Amino acid sequence: MAEVYLRRLTRWQAEQQREVVADLYVLAYRTAAGAEYRDREGFLRLFEQHVRHDGFDMVVADEVRLIGCAHGYRLERDGAWWAGFPVEVTPQIEELTASGRAFVLAELMVLPGYRRRGVATRLAELLLSRHPQDLVVAGVGPDRAEDGIRDLLRAWGWKELPASGPGTGAPGRAVWARGPVR
Question: Which has fewest Cβ within 10 Å: 14, 54, 87, 160?
Fold first, then answer.
């Protein structure tokens, strides 16, 4: 197996590579036959929003081709991101968000054949090395349970934030965090 190389992409490079990254997304998250186009288009719309955020950063893993990617951005100070998740937002989390000290790991994907080889860990470490935010979060939907992302975050020492509000207790969207959360 060839060496896996990691590299950062600027915002401009990320926008230029959006089609390649969307292809990676489809391959990394194989879905039902016929759903690839819808999934790819949905990813591209979301990726376009992510690239526009302050503090956007992206790291990719290459072997002979793109095999993995991680990107994220600094959370908006208004706290609107939290509204999409049924979690308890404590005063401490509100303060970190409002002060610009919270970063979201928006996407972490690795092709199935390269999983459990440390690629995801290396991607996340390099991405987060430039972001000294006190709180790093990742939103995880129910569709990613089978991908092992929850097990990976748990192995990294991240904690799932307590659920609250409508839908509490039902499997669904969750937020995992690294940093000062109780």
Answer: 54
